[in-house]
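User: Good morning. I'm curious how iron/sulfur cluster would be positioned relative to this chain. Could you predict the structure with it bound?
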Amino acid sequence: MDNRRAVIDAEKCDRSPWCPVKRVCPANAVEREDDNDPYFVNAYCQGCGKCVQYCPRRAVSMV
Ligand code: SF4
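Assistant: Good morning! Here's the predicted structure, ligand included:
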């Protein structure tokens, strides 16, 4: 596994309760503080890159 991590652009995140990015993450690294908040990637991210292609708003990038 490389050292990259996923980052979610809070401006682009539509805050959907059915967020596919959250669902596909094998590390359960996508979360948010509250129901109306945008999602963010926590320290459990393994950098697999799987989530990037699942965001319909292209809010996820690898850094
Ligand atoms: S890069 Fe992989 S581990 Fe990190 S948030 Fe995306 S799906 Fe989860």
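The mean pLDDT is 96. Residues 6, 25, 27, 29-30, 41, 45-51 surround iron/sulfur cluster (CB under 6 Å).
Let me know if you'd like a different ligand tried.
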